Amino acid sequence: MFERFTVAARGTVVQAREEAAALRHDHVGTEHLLLGMLGQADDPSAQVLVDAGLDLATARAAVVRLLGSGDDAQALASIGVDLDAVREAVEAAFGEGALDGPGKGEERRGRGWFKAGGRSPFTPRAKKTLELSLRESIRLGSGHIAVGHLLLGVLREGQGLGARVIADHGLDFAAVRRAVEARLTESATG
């Protein structure tokens, strides 16, 4: 499926992983896919959301509000715990990288972008969104999967945090869908 992704759609997935890591989340969910889409500033489909007032910074703030930033270091520091000192002590006792997750041969199973070997795994909803983006591409007769198809996948899945961020911003799914489909049609004929 990923061979059908446009450069911008691949960039969306890469940025989704980066957003999850930056927020210290242990997964890549539909919310991170949404952030990845909004990070494709020149994409006409992402621009639909930006034009409606949902830009990357606004969406990221909404994700942090819903999930937190995973930045426990600040919270612990506020009560006098130095997380770096704790890490150093653990690594001194148990070896370098003791807190880094599964060791060799213990990686979580998965394939391709879903593989968790050192990277956050995709949630079932995010995987479903990617599958639905392929279905949207087929439905629209596209020979590729673009950022717009990913956005249509988020809307069609409708239950993930990506969809919730869109809904909480007051956007109507049907209106966004129509606008994205129009942009996809324009870019296909343009």
Automatic annotation (TrEMBL):
Pfam families: Clp_N. Gene3D superfamilies: Clp, N-terminal domain (1.10.1780.10). The keyword Repeat applies. Keywords: Repeat. Residues 2-187 form the Clp R domain. Transmembrane segments: none annotated. The keyword Ligase does not apply. Signal peptide: none annotated. SUPFAM superfamilies: Double Clp-N motif. It comes from the Bacteria. This is Clp R domain-containing protein. The lineage of its organism: Bacteria, Bacillati, Actinomycetota, Actinomycetes, Kitasatosporales.
